């Protein structure tokens, strides 16, 4: 509403006009850019980091300038053939105000949305306003507490445009209310993009209207399918499902419950009151997956959730990755996920979870095949999301306690040397649970010593790739060895 009121009601921007938006990657900035584009205006936006400037370019901003450059006015005059801009949307303080005024064109409007200089009663040099220019103040607190029809009209206009998708919601980073300190630190560091949101655990229920649907919950009268169920994480997952109230499980892998240990595991789940069906199936075989899904649908309970964990690892340097080694790793994971997707697309599932790995985000030495397979899972999750189907891909780092890495001490040592440490089974299930409840499509979960981790990644132009990576631009905290973070 700040951006709308400033551009539409106050500046009365028209098609073909130009605007300078400071802090274009911030919440108000991004909203102003969208609104300006919607009105047919040309935007010059400033941002303080390379990542933010790159983002603004992707938003179609015609000219992006560096806000850390002291002489932004000169840059604006150059870009406009010394004409200046029709509107300046300003939240910068002190000398930035006269500088902004100096880049106004004739009939230009300077819209002040910052508070500091107003409350400090600062002076405005009037010379810059001599050619029919004007200075306006936007104070939304006063708008909201004043005549309510203005607020109501604006909300109506904006809601209509959002509904028509002429305006899209802003990106945001959400912090639990108990971490409000971290939210403020992020804002103070100026590293945020879009909005910073503080959220409360209780779902917001509008006073008039329907309550929100409940967060994800396991249904006792539904059936849950796990592939790769007898591996380390399959078992952790099955135990979590049972603990969360699942009464019907189908556990699948190629060899099924073939060992005494696996049989004892099945028994322990049954003893907890859950019906367990074990189905042998190769996740990479269409025939087997069809038979598996037929077996599932032969049960009385409808399938409510799919957890795809089946995997084979066969690490090799790129030059040694032949067709067979690619196929053996990609088939059960990627093709298996595709078969499960196709075979269940018509069902009303609550969740479709794929265990992926950080190998598809950052790459891992000798895991070209595994990285590609996981990358497919990530894309499939977004594809399903676009189709309106439930989907979650979890890009796990190292899982501790059970599973492939726990069985392979040398792999664990190698990963620790890289700075990647284990997540405990308890952390894994709580992260999974919260990601399902939040309705996320993709979640990366790693515990990492950033200093070590950064050192193993390549350097470019004297800077580590990790630091320049846009994924980390919104990470809070430093790069020191004490910055081991949960995800
Ligand atoms: N462990 C980690 O640190 C880690 C890290 C990141 C991501 N992940 C992901 O988490 C998942 C589980 O990992 P994990 O450590 O629990 O693995 P795991 O202990 O090695 O278990 C793998 C399971 O997959 C089954 N499997 C292998 N090929 C199959 C096929 N063609 N069809 C059906 N099932 C097949 C295996 O049983 P059969 O041999 O009997 O078929 C086994 O039950 C994997 O998707 C993995 O990519 C693990």
TrEMBL record:
The keyword Methyltransferase does not apply. GO terms for cellular component: cytoplasm; plasma membrane. Residues 1-198 form the Enoyl reductase (ER) domain. Pfam families: ADH_zinc_N (PF00107), KR (PF08659). SMART domains: PKS_ER (SM00829), PKS_KR (SM00822). Keywords: Phosphopantetheine, Phosphoprotein, Transferase. One of its GO terms (biological process) is fatty acid biosynthetic process. This is KR domain protein. The lineage of its organism: Bacteria, Pseudomonadati, Verrucomicrobiota, Spartobacteria, Chthoniobacterales. The keyword Phosphoprotein applies. It comes from Chthoniobacter flavus Ellin428. It comes from the Bacteria. GO terms for molecular function: fatty acid synthase activity; oxidoreductase activity. Residues 222-402 form the Ketoreductase domain.
């Amino acid at each position: 509403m700040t951006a709308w009121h400033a551009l539409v009601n106050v500046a009365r921007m028209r098609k073909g006009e130009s605007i300078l938006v400071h802090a274009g990657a911030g919440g108000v900035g991004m909203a102003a850019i969208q609104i300006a584009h919607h009105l047919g205006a040309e935007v010059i936006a400033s941002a303080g980091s390379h990542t933010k400037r790159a983002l603004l370019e992707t938003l179609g901003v015609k000219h992006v300038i560096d806000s850390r450059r002291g002489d932004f006015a000169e840059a604006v005059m150059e870009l406009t053939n010394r004409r200046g801009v029709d509107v300046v949307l300003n939240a910068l303080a002190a000398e930035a105000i006269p500088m902004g005024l100096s880049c106004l064109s004739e009939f230009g409007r300077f819209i002040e949305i910052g508070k500091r200089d107003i409350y400090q009663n600062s002076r405005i040099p009037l010379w810059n306003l001599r050619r029919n220019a004007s200075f306006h103040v936007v104070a939304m607190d006063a708008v909201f507490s004043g005549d309510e029809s203005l607020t109501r009209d604006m909300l109506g206009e904006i809601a209509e445009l959002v509904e028509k998708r002429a305006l899209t919601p802003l990106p945001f980073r959400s912090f639990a209310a108990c971490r409000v300190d971290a939210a403020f630190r992020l804002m103070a560091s100026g590293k945020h993009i879009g909005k910073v949101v503080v959220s409360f655990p209780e779902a917001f229920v509008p006073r008039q209207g329907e309550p929100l649907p409940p967060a994800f919950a396991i249904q006792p009268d539904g059936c849950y399918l796990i592939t790769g169920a007898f591996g380390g994480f399959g078992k952790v997952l099955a135990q979590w499902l049972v603990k969360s109230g699942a009464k019907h499980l189908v556990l699948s892998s190629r060899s099924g419950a073939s060992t005494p240990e696996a049989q004892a595991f099945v028994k322990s789940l049954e003893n907890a009151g859950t019906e367990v069906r074990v189905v042998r199936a190769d996740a990479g075989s269409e025939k087997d997956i069809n038979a598996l899904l037929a077996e599932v649908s032969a049960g009385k309970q409808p399938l409510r959730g799919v957890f795809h964990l089946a995997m084979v690892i066969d690490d090799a340097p790129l030059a040694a990755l032949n067709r067979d080694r690619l196929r053996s790793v990609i088939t059960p994971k990627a093709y298996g996920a595709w078969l499960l997707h196709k075979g269940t697309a018509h069902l009303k599932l609550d969740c479709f979870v794929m265990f992926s790995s950080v190998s598809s985000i950052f790459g891992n030495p000798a895991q070209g095949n595994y990285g590609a397979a996981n990358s497919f899972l990530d894309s499939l999750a977004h594809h399903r999301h676009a189709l309106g189907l439930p989907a979650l891909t979890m890009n796990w780092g190292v899982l501790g306690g059970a599973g492939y890495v726990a069985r392979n001490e040398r792999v664990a040592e190698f990963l620790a040397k890289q700075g990647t440490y284990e997540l405990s089974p308890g952390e894994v299930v709580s992260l999974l649970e919260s990601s399902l409840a939040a309705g996320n499509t993709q979640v990366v979960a790693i515990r990492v010593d950033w200093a070590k981790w950064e050192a193993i990644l390549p350097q470019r132009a004297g800077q580590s790739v990790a630091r320049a990576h846009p994924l980390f631009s919104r990470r809070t905290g430093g790069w020191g060895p004490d910055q081991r973070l949960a995800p």
